[in-house]
Amino acid sequence: MRAHGGDDVRPGVGVRGRSRDDAPALRRAFLSLGSNLGERAAALRTARAALADLPGTTVVAASRIYETAPQDVTDQPSFLNQVVCLDTVLEPRELLAATQRIEAAAGRVRTVRFGPRTLDVDILLLEGVASDDPELTLPHPRLWQRAFVLVPLAELWQHARGMPTADVKAMAAELASSQDVSLYVAED
Ligand code: AMP
To answer: pTM of the prediction?
Structure first.
């Protein structure tokens, strides 16, 4: 795990708090939420509430919700996808553990890779942190390839802080021309 900008790093533990009094660093993060089983919109709503309840964590903004045709495993229901921007004092591994608890609480069972799931929560970007650890790769390894991530991320990109420099809006538009992503309209 390493930090952009020369922060001290303890391998395998995360990036050390940056403030002089050793208070935990507040980092901005972008997370993606996805669901294609059960009450999909409710699963995203519950996930947003659970993220807001994490210690030292505030939800800064949430994108609109998009509906996406499944990509890698195509014989499954369509997904709802959303991106959420957070500020958190949780260390990278703590945030990962928290997202996995939130997935488990939604009833997620890991079966087929890229297969159906009640809730998937991925950490896309974490301010000042880069990592090629397979347990927590940052930026997320598939972030730049997927319209269902980049289109909602582009909506929130004005909140980016300490993130890689990228023209996210242009990349999202490019991917959306070849991948099936549409704004989700809730059924009443
Ligand atoms: P998935 O089934 O797609 O949710 O992948 C979960 C696995 O990816 C877990 O074993 C995580 O440790 C690992 N992983 C690696 N990088 C990340 C990341 N940036 N966000 C979430 N999970 C990650």
So the answer is: 0.86
- For the chain, list the domains and their CATH numbers: 23-183 (3.30.70.560)
**End-to-end C-alpha distance for the chain, whole angstroms:** 45
Q: Which residue of the set 122, 132, 133, 146 is catalytic? A: 122
CB-CB contact of 36 with 120 (8 Å): no
| Residue 133 alpha carbon to ligand 1 centre in Å | 10
26/8 Cα distance (integer angstroms): 16
**In this structure, what token pair is assigned to residue 98?**
């928290």
* DSSP class per residue in 169-182: HHHHHHHHTTS-EE
Helices 92-105 and 40-52 sit at what angle, rounded to 10 degrees?
Answer: 140
Please tell me the distance between residue 65's alpha carbon and the centre of ligand 1 in angstroms.
21
Q: What percent of the chain has pLDDT over 70?
A: 81
